[in-house]
Amino acid sequence: MNELIDRFLQMLRAERNFSEHTVRAYATDLSQLDSWLKREQLSIEDLSNQHIRRYLAELSEARYARTTINRRLSSTKTFFKWLVEGGHVKSDPSSIVSGPKLARSLPHTVSHDELVCLLKEPAEPESPSDLRDRTLVELLYASGARISEVAALRLADIFFDEGQVRLFGKGSKERLVPLHPYALSLVRKYVQEARPALLAKAKKGPASAAAAAASTQALTGGELFISNTGRAMSAASLRAAFKKRLARAGADSSLSPHAMRHTFATDLLEGGADLRSIQELLGHENLSTTQIYTHLSVHHLQETYKQAHPRA
């Protein structure tokens, strides 16, 4: 079982180009399934749909969240589909098993007043880190990017002449998203003024050759966002910078960078953009994922109805 799981995870990396974060999630889920099989003295060849239902029931009794249970089931389904395709098992017992239904919650967006405060240009001169954080927030709102996508951005991914940014979404799928002129000008200002100043804060004489190489790479065309210590910022450090900006603006502290993505999509919809275009900009694989934003824009739907219905 462990060998099969390792081979499956390697396939996710090599063939499906899944991120390490996603692969770790699969590894965790399948490790839990393996532990349950050993406890029940079952092999994957013995597993039936009744066994899987019992496994899910035990997770529910242990008060796991429904989202977690559904993720465990999804990982199991993907694993067994691979096992069947590879001839490791004869049938997929998980194919007819359904997970618990989820209450669909609406995305959390940033209010207009909070957005104005977050994006406001200060009257006093900004420090390099303050300019970086404001650029981060502006870029999130201008592109609808995920925080992981922003963390992966490099200087070469900003096309100033074309007015576009290149993003790599789930499965490393590439998409080009237009940026409005103000966002482009702010990114340019950050790159020309704040980024070099942040890079200069890197410690003199790095402790290792690897650290020296990383510093040189960032200086010559590496990652876009640089920390206060002159290093490339991870998704976690970018989230912390976003929270810092929230506190300074006096905005809702529960907001996340993903709320900017939701706000981007909702504002586009209310501005008259069609769902297909929003789907492409967000990098959604299925239109059904994008349709959730129609629930946030009742006014837009009412106006569309009035314009389109013959008797309206």
Verbal overview:
This protein is mainly alpha-helical and 312 residues long. The protein contains 14 helices and three strands. It has helices at residues 2-14, 20-39, 49-61, 66-85, 112-119, 128-143, 147-151, 181-199, 209-221, 235-249, 257-270, 275-282, 287-290, 298-308; strands at residues 158-159, 164-168, 174-178. A three-stranded antiparallel beta sheet has the order 1-2-3, with no helix packed on it. Helix 3 (49-61) packs antiparallel against helix 4 and helix 6 runs antiparallel to helix 8 (181-199). The radius of gyration is 23 Å and the shape is globular. The termini are far apart.
Shape: globular
Portion of residues in beta strands equals under 5%
Overall mean pLDDT: 87
Strand order of the largest sheet: 1-2-3
The proportion of residues forming helix, as a percent range, comes to: 55-70%
In angstroms, what separates the terminal alpha carbons? 62 Å
Q: Output the radius of gyration.
A: 23 Å
Order of helices and strands: HHHHHHHEEEHHHHHHH
- Major β-sheet, in short? 3 strands, antiparallel
Uncertain residue ranges: none
Number of helices: 14
Strand element count: 3
- What structural category arises from helix and sheet content? mainly alpha
Compact summary:
With 312 residues, the chain is mainly α.
Question: Which helices and strands occur, and which strands form pairs?
Answer:
Layout: H1 2-14, H2 20-39, H3 49-61, H4 66-85, H5 112-119, H6 128-143, H7 147-151, E1 158-159, E2 164-168, E3 174-178, H8 181-199, H9 209-221, H10 235-249, H11 257-270, H12 275-282, H13 287-290, H14 298-308
Antiparallel strand pairs: 1-2, 2-3
Helix pairs in contact: 1-2, 2-4, 3-4, 6-8, 6-10, 6-11
